[in-house]
Structures are given as structure tokens and as C-alpha cells.
Amino acid sequence: KIMKIIHLSDPHIYIDKIHGIDPVSKFKKALSHIKNNHGDADLFAITGDITDLGDKDSYQLFIKIIDEAGLPKNLNPQLIIGNHDNRDEFKINFPNIETDPNGFIQYFKDIDNKRLIFIDTNLINTHQGHYCEERQEWLNNILSKTNTDTYIFMHHNPLALVKEESDGIGLQQKKEFQQILTKNNKIIKHIFFGHQHITSSGSYCGITFSSPRSTWSPLIPNFSNEYRLGTANTDTNYNVAIITPDKDIIPDAETLNPAYIVFDNYEIILKWNRSLRFALAVCSLKDKIKNEI
Predict the structure, then answer these.
(1) Which of 4, 31, 132, 278 could in theory staple to 69 by disulfide, Cβ–Cβ 3.0 to 4.6 A?
(2) Is 282's pLDDT higher than 80?
(3) Which residues have C-beta within 8 Å of that of residue 18, sequence separation ≥ 6?
(4) pTM of whole model > 0.90?
């Protein structure tokens, strides 16, 4: 089955304007657009910075906005926290959202033979992303018991989107997280994150990734050699991800005609570009060139 995922991040809900921008009105517009255009979605995820200050009033305002939006049940948002959130206050206001044994807001959800894992990269009093050994152990344990296509949702960017030197507030345990991804890149199919307020996409450790801009205030990539934030007069957005089964990408896949036996080189090509058609084209072209020589 094809799966549609709505991915929104960094609404920064607050009772007043922030730097002259009203986060509430922009968030409401996004919810209205989602309701009117994507009522058939299988999942709606908001990857952190639910609020700007992590305070009770802002969380209650967020809940009120969601209630008044009249979203269908299938669009009841799956939430995780970001650096602007407060874990303790979040758990008070969202008591039904699961936590791991150590109290971190980490959980998974299975839909149509796919596993969606939501992780917690928040550390109090810093905007940097942190993923401690306890959280890593929880994720490793879940992945070790998973044998189906898996999708990870997190707030902080797991890789530097431009330069390592300027990625001052990204995930700090990049090396450790990279090891987890590399070990499990045959089952992890995509990483959804936010935090940087930048639209991005690509491939990392053989896994595709994407991020939307904030619905509050978009930023621009930083190409300098030091950390800084740059705003831009660009539109806010959310992302729509369409997950299509392999058999629906390749024509006549169910007839097994044509059929291919693939080996490790096929997986290596997919690490560079996750397109099945691309990988088949490269492998087929190689054989055609070999036969002509």
C-alpha cells in the first residue's frame, strides 16, 4: 500500500508574536491546508519545537488550536519535542504520548507493515541536539527487533546540512548516530527531521532524509565557517512524503518479467541514489558495455 505522510516542524506556538511574526495564524493556515488537501494521509507528524518557550500556556494553546482545527482522526498529530520544548511540561500536557523506560519521549508506531520510530534529541538549557547512551540503547534495542521498513522521526539534524564548522546546534553525537544508521541502513528507509527551518533532502549513510521549513519563520543555509542564523523572506511550508512499494515503481513487477538477481553491488549503488530505476539502469548499462567490448 502507498503511504502518505504529512511532515510539519517547528511551529513555535506562543501566545504573542515572536520577532514580529505570529506563529499561531501561520500554524492555523497550515492545518487548514492539510485538512482540505490531505485528509487521506496515513500519518501527520510534527517533529518538535511545538512551542517557543516550553510553557504551559503555549502547550494549552497548541492543544486548543488542534481541537478547533477539526482534523480527522487519522490526522491526529504524532509529536516529539525539540530544543525549544520542555520535556517535563510536555509530558504533563500530553500524558498519553509514550515515553521510554528512562522517561525520554521515544516510541514507535506500526502502520501497514512499516515501523515509524519517534526519538527524543532534547537536552535542557541548550539548543544543541543530544542523543545520550541511554537513548541510543533504546533505539538499538528497537531496531534489533525490527525486520520491516523503518522510518525515523527526530527534531535535530543528524548531519551538517552545509559545513561541520557552522553546524553549531545540530546533533552532537553524530558519530554514534551514524554508526546506528550504518548498521541498520537496510531497514531504515528515511529520516524526517526539522530544527534548521530549512527545506533539505538527500542521502546519508545510504538512507534518504528530508526536512521542512518552520511554519513560523524560515531560515536560509549557512555557508560560512561559523555558526549563525540567517532569515529569509521565503514562504513557510510543510512536507508531504509519498512512500511507494517497490513493486509499484517497476512496471510489471508482479509478472517477474523482466526479473533480476541482485548482489551487493546493487545495494552499493542504492546507497548513492535510492532510485530503483537508477540502480537497475546502472547495472544493466554495465552489462551492455561489457558485451560490446
Answers:
(1) 31
(2) yes
(3) 12, 52, 216, 217
(4) no
